[in-house]
Description:
The protein has 390 residues and is α+β, with helices and mostly antiparallel strands. The chain has helices at residues 12-23, 36-41, 50-58, 63-68, 88-91, 102-115, 236-245, 249-252, 298-319, 323-350, 358-373, 375-386; strands spanning 5-8, 28-31, 47-49, 70-72, 74-79, 82-87, 97-99, 119-121, 125-130, 138-143, 146-151, 154-157, 175-190, 200-203, 209-215, 218-225, 260-274, 277-278, 281-283, 289-290. Helix 1 links the parallel strand 1 and strand 2.
Amino acid sequence: xxxxxxxxxxxxxxxxxxxxxxxxxxxxxxxxxxxxxxxxxxxxxxxxxxxxxxxxxxxxxxxxxxxxxxxxxxxxxxxxxxxxxxxxxxxxxxxxxxxxxxxxxxxxxxxxxxxxxxxxxxxxxxxxxxxxxxxxxxxxxxxxxxxxxxxxxxxxxxxxxxxxxxxxxxxxxxxxxxxxxxxxxxxxxxxxxxxxxxxxxxxxxxxxxxxxxxxxxxxxxxxxxxxxxxxxxxxxxxxxxxxxxxxxxxxxxxxxxxxxxxxxxxxxxxxxxxxxxxxxxxxxxxxxxxxxxxxxxxxxxxxxxxxxxxxxxxxxxxxxxxxxxxxxxxxxxxxxxxxxxxxxxxxxxxxxxxxxxxxxxxxxxxxxxxxxxxxxxxxxxxxxxxxxxx
Length: 390
Ligand code: APR
Ligand code: PHB
């Protein structure tokens, strides 16, 4: 087979790029390791920055998001029994975020790829990029007993944190930066009315908690737990009791509980791989960087990678201008690191750190006090939360 751009990974990054390129007449193939059912069964976060929502519309995939997603113009930070509202709209110059599940984003992107007869190959095993530093790279994969070869101009590594793309960059070239946090988030999805129409991030001595939602009948809640905890240790009753303990009374008294329909523990990690280009291979999204979920930046730092790559590839094919591709890694990383900083700051501000000394705890308190007393600090939070410009 032959194509212009071979995209490894059929998550939101790979599908979005595939869709945008196809709309500009650039031929591409997506290779996904898993079945579509498997990809769509993964529960992911649910906050989209406005730039990502714009990209969905540009990709002609924004219709359902605009119909079913909720515009949120603020959220709360709960601390010492009180709710403090962060007015995103006021402090970000009129911007907002869209609450819409990332799983639904992926579903909408698959539907769009089907409508346009885009090529997405599922259950592609042993995907392997080759000859990346030549001008004739190719990708192989196995389907049953057959090895299939795809010749292409460019390979896009959009295969997530555990993918093969990043691993095909020699260790002598790649520098990896990593920070692992000493706790995880226990998340519960339940078919109950959300306790608050806006998200509540709670800082509590017993640990962080988050009240989020997918719709007016579907809630998503999280609590900080030690990394040694297992899902089996947490009955639904124990989860609800602990969540309520970490929230102000006025919130926990309103909480409607119910059976969990999904329960899982996710570790918190920050990670960046540099550079994001190796020869004809370009990394995008979780393949190159991940953030702890506290700042809701995961998909959103993938969005700018896709935006830069899309424009760079269009300029390459339509104007024979390769400067966007040459600058891609530096440009993408500049925004990636800003999202890293913000996610680290939100995580540091709101969690209980087992190793923290009294001095650290005081600083955390004063950071929160400063935030609620300073419009400048709230502006900084708001502009990062709604998403820095691409
Ligand atoms: N070959 C082909 N596909 C692969 C391989 C491989 N070797 N390894 C992984 N994949 C697939 C995965 O099955 C997954 O569907 O690549 C896809 C990567 O998708 P994500 O992990 O969702 O990464 P990305 O598309 O960059 O999305 C980034 O979306 O859901 C969020 O938490 C995620 O916020 C992050 C953002
Ligand atoms: C979620 O709804 O899953 C969610 C929302 C906000 C976050 C993280 C996760 O910061």
